Amino acid sequence: MGMPTVAINPHAAPPTSLVALGKSLWRNRQLIVQMIKREVAGRYKGSAFGLAWSFFNPVFMLVVYTFVFSEIFKSRWGGAGADGSKTQFAVVLFVGMIVLNLFNEVLNRAPGLILSNVNYVKKVVFPIEILPVVAMGAALFHALISIGVLLLAFVIFNGYLNWTVIFTPLVLLPLVVLTTGLAWMLASLGVFLRDVGQTIGIITTVLMFLAPVFYPITAVPERFRGFIMANPLTFIIEQARDVLVWGHLPNWLGLAVYTFVSTATAWVGYAWFQKTRKGFADVL
């Protein structure tokens, strides 16, 4: 598990370009994969079922959603009919929760990433810029397991699978890029401002209720719909439901715009992280 030794000048300004970011991720790809595996395995270390919990957790949550919303709330998504079946509500809700959990897990962890890895900060040769990427990789692993559970449930409930599910990676990619960019920014801010960890928890909770996770966007009054659409989670949740549940093609123009904004955000977040990383050791 040897890391390639690269001659590094500790006094040189860290590179901030997207090209430098790409090179860093490629150069450290094996290290990133190893750390993601360790991160995932570490979460279930000591438990009897181990990694199997990553499968049982989403299954359990989907069963609970199905029971609560179909038997207790008698909920329908968008009225009666095939699209409003009781089990369909749970599936549609679960899609929103998968997207939400991917976003929230990374952002809520981000402010403490550097603080919980002080030993890496002290090592000049360790590429600490990969820590948010590792956190995203672990969150993506659990999201993919949840999507697998969702697709299995969809087949059981409906007897078929929409071919549009092949576009799921394209729909989630812009959110992954955006979230990683924000994670770089929050990981840096979390070193200098310890209140960031508490604040981001409040913000992600607000974003959860201001996204169409538990309700369709059509249920929002017109005058408030702009606020909901401004939420970065809204577009991805709607697109994920389109390809996974409703069998619609993605909004290609919307995805292109979202990807552009996400890439710009990721670059700003990475640049900010690189500009401020010299001060980490002093504060820690």
Inertia-based shape: globular
Spans of at least 5 consecutive residues with low confidence: 1-8, 79-83
The number of helical elements comes to 12
Helix content: 55-70%
Q: How many strands?
A: 0
Task: Please sum up the structure shown.
With 284 residues, the chain is mainly α. Helices cover 68% and strands 0% of the residues. The longest helix has 28 residues, at 131-158.
Task: Kindly list the characteristics that best describe this protein.
12 helices; 68% helix; mainly alpha; disordered N terminus; globular; 284 residues
Describe the structure.
The chain is mainly α and 284 residues long. It has helices spanning 18-27, 29-43, 53-72, 86-109, 118-121, 131-158, 168-192, 196-209, 222-230, 232-246, 252-276, 280-283. α4 runs antiparallel to α6 (131-158). The longest helix is centred in the middle third of the chain and has 28 residues, at 131-158.
